[in-house]
TrEMBL record:
<keyword id="KW-0436">Ligase</keyword>
<protein>
    <recommendedName>
        <fullName>Aspartyl/glutamyl-tRNA(Asn/Gln) amidotransferase subunit C</fullName>
        <ecNumber>6.3.5.-</ecNumber>
    </recommendedName>
</protein>
<dbReference type="InterPro" id="IPR003837">
    <property type="entry name" value="GatC"/>
</dbReference>
<comment type="function">
    <text>Allows the formation of correctly charged Asn-tRNA(Asn) or Gln-tRNA(Gln) through the transamidation of misacylated Asp-tRNA(Asn) or Glu-tRNA(Gln) in organisms which lack either or both of asparaginyl-tRNA or glutaminyl-tRNA synthetases. The reaction takes place in the presence of glutamine and ATP through an activated phospho-Asp-tRNA(Asn) or phospho-Glu-tRNA(Gln).</text>
</comment>
<keyword id="KW-0648">Protein biosynthesis</keyword>
<keyword id="KW-0547">Nucleotide-binding</keyword>
<keyword id="KW-0067">ATP-binding</keyword>
<dbReference type="Pfam" id="PF02686">
    <property type="entry name" value="GatC"/>
</dbReference>
<comment type="similarity">
    <text>Belongs to the GatC family.</text>
</comment>
<dbReference type="InterPro" id="IPR036113">
    <property type="entry name" value="Asp/Glu-ADT_sf_sub_c"/>
</dbReference>
<comment type="subunit">
    <text>Heterotrimer of A, B and C subunits.</text>
</comment>
<feature type="region of interest" description="Disordered">
    <location>
        <begin position="74"/>
        <end position="96"/>
    </location>
</feature>
Length: 96
């Protein structure tokens, strides 16, 4: 017996904004959704009692460097390669 009814398939299709006009397509989608439900039930049977939860597949470490006080770049050095400047700032075209 099917876990998913045709009415449920049509409701899911409506929520997903998928238009299903053909009854055969609805039945095909019903079969696919049933297979997904069966697979999910198989996953529920896996014994995870001795498995620690994971937040990521790989161990991640913070790769940021230590904060160090440095001399900032001067305004002149920051602007020396700019194509156009005005009043000590980068001049760019209007973007509207």
């Amino acid at each position: 017996m099917s876990e998913i009814s045709l009415d449920t398939v049509k409701h899911i299709a409506h929520l997903a904004r998928i238009e299903i006009q053909d009854e055969d397509k609805a039945q095909a989608m019903q079969k696919e959704l049933d297979e997904i439900v069966v697979y999910a039930k198989q996953l529920e049977e896996v014994d995870l009692a001795s498995t620690d939860p994971m937040f990521h597949a790989l161990d991640l470490n913070n790769v940021l460097r230590e904060d160090e006080i440095e001399t900032p770049i001067s305004q002149e050095d920051a602007l020396k390669n700019a194509k156009s400047t005005q009043d000590g700032q980068f001049k760019v075209p209007k973007m509207l």
